[in-house]
Write a structure and sequence with these properties.
This protein is α+β, with helices and mostly antiparallel strands. 49% of the residues lie in helices and 15% in strands. It has 13 helices and ten strands. It has a four-stranded mixed beta sheet with strand order 1-4-5-8, with helices on one face. The radius of gyration is 21 Å and the shape is globular. It starts with 11 loop residues before the first helix and ends with a helix. The structure holds flavin-adenine dinucleotide. The site of flavin-adenine dinucleotide has 19 residues, from strand 1, strand 3, helix 12 and helix 13.
Length: 392
């Protein structure tokens, strides 16, 4: 089984036995900029980049916080955050990185933390090594922010559950090998009946209803699913009956804390580009960076970046402490996604007409980041959660 040292075997990372040693995260950055980016760039047209996915699996990215005995790297949440930040700095494909994060944080982590020994043995190695893709299947056409009003029904019949319902907007649904499906066992649909099931691709009754065409995060595929008398063995239930809301909250703690981590790297890269452009672009006989309107924009970008990084590290540290009822995941998700969006808008504006062209990445960064303000609970919902923590 690979250890955290043999994973990430890449230049300076391989030389470093300690994650704190200088060069460790830079090694991940180099991997993301070189091997990963060229695997993504050379992939066949618009199809899912299986090679890049496998490459990340081999490097341990799909199992960063998972214990080594289950095929992961055994990193803390804080170390995971730093790795994801380094990947975001090195790789420009926000969609691909988001698909990885959703796979890791909303599927792999809950399975690792709440799955049975047999489930972990069967699924975790291939989910961590990049052989398989997982999809988190919760949202429904009529249950989005109000997720626990879901109407997908599971009914127990002996050794199986029969699941019926419609699911929407699930990342990786068109390509997933295993689906983490939330369904309700309670006849009155009360939230204490919500339960999580592993449903393998190809299970009769599970169908991709259609592939959703998004305006951003293009490399991440998305789909709606239909479950019609879909039979799932009892052994595929994760946790006890009715534990779905708790597992959902666990997944959201990880996802909200860490899914925007790569954007801290992206914000750093974008700021560097914007500073370089403001220095070299001249108008009215001087570099545009000398105009206070432009330099103030760059200063605001820098401040948002530094605050985002601090918030990310703090929220990851809180996650490492095992605190379950804290506002930090929502504060991190809200602040990081909105800060990233603001920075990408500013970078685009600083580049003028050039920033508005398809040659530059800023337009894609903006639309990609709008998606990040919606997934895992919209910014409005994060504010609602934070308000509750304030006793409101
Ligand atoms: C890129 C992307 C990836 C996604 N990936 C997945 C996935 O892998 N699996 C999955 O199950 N789902 C996924 N989703 C779905 C996502 O979780 C939902 O879109 C999100 O929770 C919002 O639900 P909704 O789209 O139905 O909007 P709605 O809940 O209908 O909200 C519409 C608007 O009303 C606001 N609103 C709603 N309720 C409140 C409230 N109480 N207070 C204030 N404002 C409110 C919202 O903020 C929003 O502006 C993804 C979505 C996106 C965009």
């Amino acid at each position: 089984m690979p250890t955290q040292q043999t994973r990430f075997q890449n230049g300076s990372a391989a030389a470093s036995a300690s994650k704190d040693a200088e060069g460790f995260y830079e090694g991940i950055e180099v991997f993301a900029r070189t091997e990963l980016s060229s695997a993504l760039f050379s992939g066949p047209d618009k199809s899912f980049p299986v090679n890049a996915w496998r490459l990340c699996g081999k490097r341990g990215i799909m199992g960063l916080p998972v214990s080594t005995e289950h095929g992961g790297c055994g990193f803390t949440a804080l170390e995971t955050a730093k790795c994801l930040e380094a990947i975001g700095y090195g790789c420009e494909d926000n969609g691909f990185i988001t698909a990885i994060c959703a796979h890791l944080l909303s599927c792999v982590v809950p399975l690792w933390q709440r799955g049975s020994a047999a489930q972990k043995e069967k699924y975790l190695p291939n989910l961590c090594n990049g052989e398989w893709v997982a999809g988190h299947v919760a949202t429904e056409p009529t249950a989005g922010s109000d997720i626990f009003s879901m109407r997908t029904r599971a009914e127990r019949r002996g050794d199986i559950y029969v699941i019926n319902g419609d699911k929407a907007y699930c990342l990786s649904a068109p390509v997933a090998d295993v689906y983490f499906v939330f369904a309700n066992l309670a006849p009155d649909f009360s939230s204490n009946g919500i339960t999580l099931f592993l449903v393998d691709r190809g299970t009769p009754g599970l169908e991709l209803e259609h592939t959703v065409q998004k305006i951003g995060l293009k490399t991440a595929t998305m789909g709606n699913l239909k479950l019609r008398n879909c039979q799932v063995p009892v052994t595929n239930r994760i946790g006890p009956e009715g534990s779905g809301t708790l597992i959902f909250h666990l997944a959201m703690r990880w996802e909200r804390t860490l899914i925007i981590a790569p954007q801290v790297g992206t914000m750093r890269r974008t700021l560097e580009k914007a500073i370089a452009y403001a220095r070299e672009r001249h108008q009215f006989g001087q570099s545009i960076g000398k105009f206070q309107s432009v330099s103030n924009r760059l200063v605001d970008m820098k401040v948002r970046l530094e605050l985002a990084r601090l918030m990310l590290y703090h929220a990851a540290h809180v996650l490492d402490q095992g605190r379950r009822d804290s506002a930090e995941p929502s504060i991190a998700k809200l602040f990081l996604s909105e800060a990233a969006l603001a920075n990408h808008m500013d970078a685009l504006r600083i580049h003028g007409a050039q920033g508005f062209t398809e040659d530059m990445e800023f337009g894609n960064d903006v639309t990609d980041t709008i998606g990040l303000t919606i997934l895992s609970g919209t910014s409005d919902i994060q504010r609602q959660i934070i308000a509750k923590h304030l006793g409101l």
